[in-house]
Amino acid sequence: MAEKYFTPEIETMPRDEIKKLQSERLVKQIKNVYENVEPYRKKMDAAGVKPEDIHGIEDLHLLPFTTKDDLRDEYPYGMLARPLSDCVRIQSTSGTTGKRVVAFYTQNDIDMWDECCARAITAVGGTKDDVVQVCYGYGLFTGGPGLNGGSHKVGSLTLPMSSGNTDRQLQFMQDLKATILCCTPSYAEYLAESAINTGAIDNIHIKAGIFGAEAWTEEMRRDIENKFGRGMKAYDIYGLTEITGPGVAFECSDQGGMHVNEDYFIAEIIDPKTGEVLPYGSKGELVFTTIAKEAFPMIRYRTRDICVLSDSQCPCGRTHVRMSKPMGRTDDMLIIRGVNVFPSQIETVLLEQGYEANYQIIVDRVNNSDTIDVNVEMTPEKFTDNLGKVADMEKQLVSALKSMLGIFAKVHLVAPRTIARSEGKAVRIIDNRKL
Amino acid sequence: MTVKQISVFLENRKGQLNEITKILAQAGINLLALNIAETTEYGIVRIIVDDVAAATDALIGAGMVVKVSDVSRVTISNSVGGLNSALQKIADAGIDIEYMYSMVSGDSENADMVFKTADSTALEAALAN
Ligand SMILES: [Zn+2]
């Protein structure tokens, strides 16, 4: 089947033209925020950068970063670049601590967001003949409204289910013959399991799923695809409210990373410690600049997500850069022997190897060299009465960690329930280094 | 004869083994055999008890990782060369022994051994010769 694009002239635009388009839009946007958004003007003045210094994307690195704290400090209206009368919508982050971030949209901003999600739906094979079941939450959360808008734009029949009520979800999925499912990967897995248990799976014709808003693994992808069966494909989508919502980047048929909608967003990877821009292929913090947004422009917004960007040619024909799945959060990053290590990477390995994601990382410095020890709880499923097999399991875990982290970590299998649950990050990492 | 063996994951910490024996004692369970296979980091405690279901419940209830598997309980003559002759028969039959250990026996004429092999029927057939 030939690859379908929603807006082919943009999605397959030659890279030099994309860069030219980005440069033009960036110059305009910087002039706009300097004139209309006081916090940006103050930051640029403090950094000694004037709008005239920005001639194109090559000058992007001169601009100061924007952080989530900046948005909290300016809550609610401080970052607005347009009068409220031009705005038509507010969405908000699901922040667990402190003030939430509220984002504003003009009608053009909403149209742009819908366009992003329409590209994502088209990339997974969606057309006007599809029935798109959206079970992301609707409301302040961007998941529901984003995919809903994209589905309308494609012309698909949209089922605005919102989250929850699994029986009804499965009923409608069967009766109304939904073909594309949009929800979190964990809910997709749950829906598939429920459908298998009730026998509903025989009457379900989901051919593709767009799953985001939480971390998931390749193993989960295969699992979801197998559970739905009939060649169903599961795709990733990335977004954040500060930048717009889901659709900032989306996966194509290649399932090998998410294309960033580069006509709207410039993606950079930086070293989270120094702020230095890193070349494509390097692992670092993802930073976005919105070059087309009107109401709530973000200049070099630090997402705190760690990933890798690639401009290698994609078999799908799209030319926009691809970002990897986020590998972790900068907040949790450990530097061990000069290598950035994220607890989430360790978690991924444990889940893939069949252990619970309950672990403890102990970092120390012995003879001027960092050491990392990972305590992993034995599980009833993995345990055997054969010592050799237990030793093999341990070796397998060490080698899987080595290939994920790039460094050697010592593994200790410990008795279950010996690692405190629930409290989260604080007990996960014990750093004994005296620096 | 085939009997049930309970294996328990053991972290090599002080008092861990004692924890297991305490749980069993409190549940009123009699230990017929106990064997430990260990590395410096962890070990596997293998036990044979009089009440497998009650022992398993008590250990799992205390948060232990437990696995129940089939092993062969074999009675051999408690005399010079008794074990050697049994092992010779097993070797002649081409059966691999994963591990083995001894257990209490009812009388002094005989000794009981526990064998873990891939095929308990083949083992018993070999020893019956
Ligand atoms: Zn692609």
Features:
heterodimer; A: 435 residues; alpha/beta; Rossmann fold; GMP Synthetase, Chain A, domain 3; 2 domains; 13-stranded mixed beta sheet; four-stranded mixed beta sheet; 12 helices; B: 129 residues; alpha+beta; VC0802-like; Alpha-Beta Plaits; six-stranded antiparallel beta sheet; 4 helices; 6 strands; binds zinc ion
Brief write-up:
Chain A folds into 2 domains: 323 residues, ANL, N-terminal domain (Rossmann fold, 3-Layer(aba) Sandwich); 97 residues, GMP Synthetase, Chain A, domain 3 (2-Layer Sandwich), CATH 3.30.300.30.
Secondary-structure map with pairings?
The complex is a heterodimer of chains A (435) and B (129).
Chain A: H1 8-11, H2 15-36, H3 38-47, H4 68-73, E1 87-92, E2 102-106, H5 107-123, E3 131-134, H6 143-154, E4 157-160, H7 166-175, E5 180-183, H8 185-198, E6 208-211, H9 218-228, E7 233-240, E8 245-251, E9 258-260, E10 265-270, E11 277-278, E12 283-290, E13 301-310, E14 322-323, E15 328-329, E16 334-336, E17 339-341, H10 343-352, E18 359-366, E19 369-377, H11 387-405, E20 410-414, H12 425-428, E21 429-431
Parallel strand pairs in A: 3-4, 3-5, 5-6, 6-7, 18-21, 19-20
Antiparallel strand pairs in A: 1-2, 7-8, 8-9, 9-14, 10-11, 10-12, 12-13, 13-14, 13-15, 16-17, 18-19
Helix pairs in contact in A: 2-3, 5-6, 8-9, 10-11
Chain B: E1 2-11, H1 16-26, E2 31-38, E3 42-49, H2 52-61, E4 66-77, H3 82-92, E5 97-103, E6 110-117, H4 120-128
Antiparallel strand pairs in B: 1-3, 1-4, 2-3, 4-6, 5-6
Bound molecules: zinc ion (ZN).
